[in-house]
Amino acid sequence: MARQKQEASATLDQAACAPEWTDILRQMILIRRFEEATEREFRRGKIGGYLHVYSGQEAVVSGVISALGKDDAVFTGYRDHAHALALGADPKRVMAELFGKAAGVSKGKGGSMHLFDVEHGFYGGYGIVGGHVTLAAGAAYALRYRGTDRIVVCYFGDGAMNIGSFHEAMNMAGLWGKDGMCPILFIIENNGYAMGTSVERHSALTDLAARVRAYNIQAEKADGQDLFAIRGVADRAVRQVRESGKPYCIEAVTYRFSGHGAADILQPYRSKDEVEEHKHRDPIVILRTRLSEMCGLGDNDVKKMEDEAAQRVAEAVKFAEESPAPEPDELYRDVVAE
Ligand SMILES: Cc1ncc(C[n+]2csc(CCOP(=O)(O)OP(=O)(O)O)c2C)c(N)n1
Ligand SMILES: [Mg+2]
C-alpha cells in the first residue's frame, strides 16, 4: 500500500472499520516478510555490506507514514527498508538495491543503508548515526521558505540522540520554529538499545521526549507497538506541524526483535527471555487481533495477506537476483554534485 492520498486532516475512526486499516496490516506483514527475506539473503551471501532490519517496529513506520500527505518528505537512518516500502517504493527495486544491482532505488550504489526514492518522498537512508537530522531540519526550513505546506518527518534512534549533530539540528529547529519556519515531525524510534548499549546505559536522562523539550520543541511519548495509538498521535501532530510551521516530536516506544545488524548474532546485552517477553507485544499481532475483534477480520483474510506478501517478496528476490550489476562507468556518477 502506498501512502494514502488523503487530506492531512484525516481523523482516526476506528469504529468505521475502514479498508485503510486492513491495507496497513497488509503493509506491515509485507515489511516483516521482506525483512525476513533480507536476513536469509544476507546469510546466502547475496547481500553485501551492512544489514539492519526493522522487525518489531513496523507500527512506528506504518502509523506515521499513513498519516502524511502525498507530498511530504521522509528522512531516516540506516534501518530504512520499512520506510521506503511504506512510502510506496517498489519492493523489487528495494531488494535490488540491497543486492547492489543497477535496478535498485539508488542504482545499486547505496545498499541497505542508503535507500533513496524521491519519487515517493523518501530522502534517505543515511549511515552516519544522527547526521541526517541536520539535513531534515534544513529541508523543513526550505519547504516553508518556498511557501509550500509540505512537512518533513525525520526518524532517528534513541542512540542518535547522543551525537553532536542531533543537538545542533534540534536547536536550529526549535529556533526556526519560533517563526513558524520549521515544519518537521521528529520520530524517536526508542527501541531500547543503541547497538548493544541500553538506553539506561547511554542516556543521562532516560525520558527521551523530555530531552527534546529542552529545545523548545513539544514532545510526547506513544506506544510504538500499537498502530492505533501511534496513528492517533501522528494525525494530531502532522496537522499541528503543517498549520504552525513548528517542530513536534513523538517518542515511539518500541522494540527490535532481531539483532542490531545481521552480524549481531549472540546478542550478549539482552536475554532471550527479554526478547520473548516483547514478542508478546508484536505490533502485527496487536493490529490483527484488534481488527478481528472490531471488524471481523478472519484467519482466511490474514492468510491471504501472508500469501500475497510471501509472493511479492519472492518476486522481489528473484528480480534482484536476475538483475544486472551497475556498469563500471557508473562508479563516479551521482557521487558528488556537478
Ligand atoms: C557517527 C557514527 N557513530 C557510530 C556509528 C556506529 N553505529 C551504528 S548504529 C549505532 C547505534 C545507533 O542506535 P540507535 O540510534 O538507537 O538506532 P537503532 O540501531 O536502535 O535503530 C552506532 C553507534 C555510526 N554509524 N555513526
Ligand atoms: Mg535504538
Write the layout of secondary structure elements.
Elements: H1 19-43, H2 58-65, E1 73-75, H3 81-87, H4 91-98, H5 132-145, E2 152-157, H6 164-178, E3 184-190, E4 193-194, E5 197-198, H7 199-202, H8 208-213, E6 218-223, H9 227-244, E7 248-253, H10 272-279, H11 283-295, H12 299-322
Parallel strand pairs: 1-2, 2-3, 3-7, 6-7
Antiparallel strand pairs: 4-5
Helix pairs in contact: 1-2, 1-3, 1-11, 1-12, 2-3, 2-9, 4-12, 5-6
Thiamine diphosphate is lined by residues 79, 127-129, 157-160, 163, 189, 191, 193-195, 260.
Keyword list:
338 residues; binds thiamine diphosphate; alpha/beta; binds magnesium ion; Rossmann fold; single chain
Strand content: 5-15%
Q: Which series of helices and strands comes N to C?
A: HHEHHHEHEEEHHEHEHHH
Bound molecules: thiamine diphosphate, magnesium ion
Number of strand segments: 7
N- and C-termini, Cα separation: 35 Å
Shape: globular
Number of helices: 12
CATH architecture label: 3-Layer(aba) Sandwich
Arrangement of strands in the largest sheet: 1-2-3-7-6
| Biggest sheet statistics | 5 strands, parallel
CATH fold descriptor: Rossmann fold
Overall radius of gyration: 19 Å
Average residue-wise pLDDT: 95
The structural class is: alpha/beta
Ranges where pLDDT stays below 50 over 5 or more residues in a row are: 5-11
Q: Report the helical percentage.
A: 40-55%
